[in-house]
Automatic annotation (TrEMBL):
The keyword ATP-binding does not apply. It is a multi-pass membrane protein. Residues 21-252 form the Rhodopsin domain. It is found in: Membrane. GO terms for cellular component: membrane. The chain crosses the membrane at residues 38-60, 72-98, 110-133, 154-172, 192-213, 225-248. Keywords: Membrane, Transmembrane, Transmembrane helix. It holds the Pfam family Fung_rhodopsin. This is Rhodopsin domain-containing protein.
């Protein structure tokens, strides 16, 4: 119980801090807040509700078995539904960000197709989960979720959803990393992407352990979805997913701050007072000192791409 409490508090705190840093960068550094930022903010709010339900499940007084079973059943369904909505928001936010990042059409279409497929399945599962035990009010008269008529059918949905979620998580992690690592970007950019990829890989690994904890198609009736292993994996997966998504825009923060500090020393004026086209011209002119035309063109494209994708 203590370990679960520590895990929930740590994941929730780091998720909120990462989203706060992302909004700080978008508001005060780039002055551009987009739809994917607001969707990610909704994701961390839903994740907070999920963590609240998990805390109720793990800290409830076991002295009253009947009441405890009912509350745990309600809290499990609520936390699971909130985790589905959180996953939808995270993947939608990532898809919007990736559409600005990917240059090839097949990459954008792949991300869009995966996102639509996952969101469709997740919304369907969310609606079915509300009524798999009859009307939602009948849940209070059940001592266990296994007493529900469609219990085995919902287990199939949960298992398929866990597998589908793990597959999409790894695609979201590996595809952008592969694109960046095979490009001609600088080592600093690749290092930043590697950090984000590492956090995303941890989230995807938690998704795999969630599948393993869910069980197999041959032993569904022995699966108890309220066990702490599955709950911990879901919390860890969503928390790390939010952190990795936030880091996509937060990793350039130290370099941005250094550039802002050195801008006035280099050009004799505050950066915010210079329009963006003039800023690009000054940067390109400064880059071109002592370099050949090919390097200037390459760096100029990187500058334009950096400012256009933020």
């Amino acid at each position: 119980m203590i370990h679960m409490l520590a895990l929930v508090v740590a994941c929730l705190s780091l998720a909120w801090v990462s989203v706060f840093v992302r909004f700080w960068v978008k508001i005060f550094v780039t002055s551009c807040v987009r739809w994917d930022d607001w969707i990610l903010l909704l994701a961390v709010i839903l994740f907070s509700g999920q963590c609240g339900c998990v805390l109720v499940m793990t800290t409830i007084d076991p002295q009253q078995p009947h009441t405890t079973a009912n509350i745990v059943s309600y809290m499990f369904l609520a936390s699971y539904d909130l985790s589905i909505m959180t996953a939808i928001c995270i993947k939608t936010s990532l898809a919007i960000s990736f559409n600005r990042f990917f240059s090839r059409r097949w990459q954008r279409l792949l991300i869009i197709a995966i996102t639509i497929a996952f969101n469709t399945y997740a919304i369907t599962e969310l609606l079915l989960g509300l009524f798999f035990c009859g009307m939602p009010g009948k849940m209070a008269r059940k001592d266990s979720l296994q007493q529900c008529t469609h219990w085995s059918n919902m287990l199939l949905w949960w298992l398929v959803a866990a597998i589908f979620n793990a597959v999409t998580d790894w695609i979201y992690t590996l595809l952008p990393a592969t694109v960046v690592w095979t490009s001609n970007l600088s080592r600093k950019v690749k290092a930043s992407v590697s950090i984000v990829t590492a956090v995303g890989a941890l989230s995807s690994t938690a998704a795999i352990f969630r599948v393993l904890g869910t069980g197999s198609f041959t032993a569904l009736r022995d699966f108890n979805p309220t066990n702490l292993t599955v709950i911990a994996c879901v919390v860890l997966e969503m928390g790390l997913g939010i952190i990795a998504t936030s880091m996509m825009c937060s990793t350039p923060l130290p370099g941005m701050l250094v550039n802002r500090f050195s801008w006035s020393r280099t050009f004799g004026m505050p950066e915010s007072s210079v329009p963006l086209p003039a800023r690009l011209t000054l940067l390109i002119d400064d880059i071109s000192d002592g370099e050949d035309d090919c390097e200037v063109d390459k760096d100029a494209r990187e500058v334009r791409q950096t400012y256009s994708n933020i």
